Structure formats: C-alpha cells, structure tokens
C-alpha cells in the first residue's frame, strides 16, 4: 500500500499571508530574519550594515529612500508588502513582527516564568500571548518603549517591534499606571519643581486676578487630566499643557511649587524625564516672554 506523501507547509508563504491579513486589519507589520532581527531594505541598511539603527530624523521617522528598517518600516500597505524591496524580504522571513505603538498598543514582554509570576501578582489582567519562554501581556494604549525595566521584563510600544505570535486570549484592558511607571527611571516626586524651575515674579504688583482659588485648582486638575489621557505625542501634549497653564496663571503669581510639581508628576508618569519636563516648562515660559 502506497504511503501518503507528507505535505510540507511553506512557512514563508504563511508568513506573507499572515502579514497581509494583519495589514488589512490596520496592524503595521514587518518581516524578521532569524534571531528576531529586522531586514534592512535600502543600500544604507542592507545586511545590517547600519548596526540595526536606521537613519532617523529627530521625530523618529526613517529618512532612508523609503522607510526601510525595523519598526520604522512597519506598514499596513498591502501593495507595498508584495512589491520591491519588501517582497524579497518576506521570501526570506523567519517570522512576522508588528509595531505595537503603531496600532495603539503596548506589549509587556515577560521573558521567563519568574517575570510571568511577578506580572500575575502585580499587573491588571489583560490579553496574553504565550511566547517561547514566557508571555506577552498586551494593553490598550501607548508609551515609550524600554528594555530591562526589571529582571526579564521589556516594554514594547512606540519605536519598537514585537513578534506576532497570535491574537492571544483574554480581554484587553487599558494601559495601567503600574506599567507606565516601569519606564520612569526617576520616580515622579515633587523634586522637579525645585530644579531651576521657579515661578516668575507676579505682574502688576502681584495681585491675582482670579478672584477664587477654585479657578486655579480646576485649571491644574484639567491640565493633569490632559497629560494623563494623552495616548500619543506625549512630548507635544506636555509642552502645550504647560503653555496653557502659564498663559492663564503665569503672570499673576498664583502658581506655587506644589502646583508645578503636580504637572511634573503627571508628565513623568507618562514617561517624560525630569530634564524633558524642565525643558518644556522653560520653553513655554520663553514663548510667553515670562
């Protein structure tokens, strides 16, 4: 009796089908070589001669002849995926990756069982995807990416890529402050307010024109909320919020160190460093001539 010939699946074709399916759903994808390394799709990055660091503009956009490398090359353009130079890369791809930040997500990459145990004890439950050695926990919302935020834990969101290992199980929840705090190298405290950040001298003899402290309190609370709810362009949101607060309250002398510290704390909880907070505050004051 003739034995049936086993069917060999073409994994590279399967990767391409997966990529096209994800792109059609609005998930930016890119091919990875063996070892989870990205392809370089232009002469400056081919063969990884750029060392894995594509030529970037200050805003984080690849400035090669076409977006060519790593997360900067992730795309939802199905035509581009099947055209040069992408087609050649997908034919050699070892796996599929995607840009979490590009689809409004953050992946907490738990690399071992100890990290998974920590997450189950510490973080809110969300959608999970099993990996070779641990799990990906996926949250709705974006933040700055960071490696080794604690043993066996990386955060992949903006300017990063993660392997696509399937849709996962469980209900996806919003990105919690506990995850954002992992990327804050210096815990948010009232200290930034004392770092060469002083409230300008009141104008007009120092008399506050706001008649009631409730007006100021409402303004600071709204500013904190605006920063906290920012899902993208955090740098810009922080600057514009500082600018708005100083426009309303920067000349009458009613702002205190405590008010400024609250704004800095909200910004740092979103991943801003003390230096970025200081720069944004100083730039806003300069813009207003304070």
The total count of strands amounts to 10
Radius of gyration: 24 Å
Give the topology string: H per helix, E per strand. HEEHHEEHEEEEEEHHHHH
Biggest sheet descriptor? 6 strands, mixed
Helical/strand content category = alpha+beta
Q: What's the shape?
A: globular
Question: Strand content of the residues, in percent?
Answer: 5-15%
Helix amount, in percent? 25-40%
Low-confidence runs of at least 5 consecutive residues: 4-8, 187-206
- Straight-line N-to-C gap: 91 Å
Average pLDDT value? Answer: 79
Number of helices: 9
How many structural domains are formed by the residues?
A: 3
Structure description:
By secondary structure, the protein is of the alpha+beta class. The protein has 3 domains: 8-97, no CATH class; 99-182, no CATH class; 191-288, no CATH class. The protein is 35% helix and 14% strand. Helix 6 (213-228) runs antiparallel to helix 7, helix 6 packs parallel to helix 8 (257-269) and helix 7 (234-249) packs across helix 9 (274-288). Mean pLDDT is 79; it is low at 4-8 and 187-206.
């Amino acid at each position: 009796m003739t034995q049936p010939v086993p069917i060999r699946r073409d994994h590279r074709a399967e990767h391409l089908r997966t990529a096209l399916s994800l792109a059609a759903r609005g998930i930016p994808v890119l091919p990875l070589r063996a070892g989870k390394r990205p392809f370089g799709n232009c002469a400056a990055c081919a063969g990884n001669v750029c060392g894995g660091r594509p030529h970037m503009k200050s805003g984080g956009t690849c400035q090669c002849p076409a977006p060519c490398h790593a997360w900067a090359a992730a795309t939802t353009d199905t035509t581009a995926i099947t055209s040069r130079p992408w087609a050649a890369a997908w034919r050699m791809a070892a796996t599929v990756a995607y840009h979490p930040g590009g689809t409004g997500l953050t992946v907490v990459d738990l690399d071992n069982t100890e990290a998974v145990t920590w997450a189950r004890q510490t973080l809110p439950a969300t959608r999970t995807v099993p990996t070779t050695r641990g799990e990906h926990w996926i949250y709705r919302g974006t933040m700055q990416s960071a490696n080794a935020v604690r043993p066996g834990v990386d955060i992949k969101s903006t300017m990063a890529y993660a392997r696509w290992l399937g849709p996962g199980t469980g209900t996806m929840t919003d990105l919690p402050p506990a995850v954002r705090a992992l990327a804050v190298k210096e815990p948010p405290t009232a200290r930034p307010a004392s770092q060469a950040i002083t409230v300008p001298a009141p104008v007009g003899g120092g008399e506050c024109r706001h008649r009631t402290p409730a007006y100021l309190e409402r303004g600071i609370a709204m500013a904190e909320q605006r920063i906290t709810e920012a899902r993208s362009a955090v740098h810009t949101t922080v600057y514009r919020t500082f600018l708005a607060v100083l426009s309303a309250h920067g000349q009458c002398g009613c702002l205190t160190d405590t008010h400024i510290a609250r704004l800095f704390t909200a910004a740092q909880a979103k991943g801003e460093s003390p230096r970025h907070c200081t720069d944004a505050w100083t730039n806003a004051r300069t813009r207003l001539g304070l």
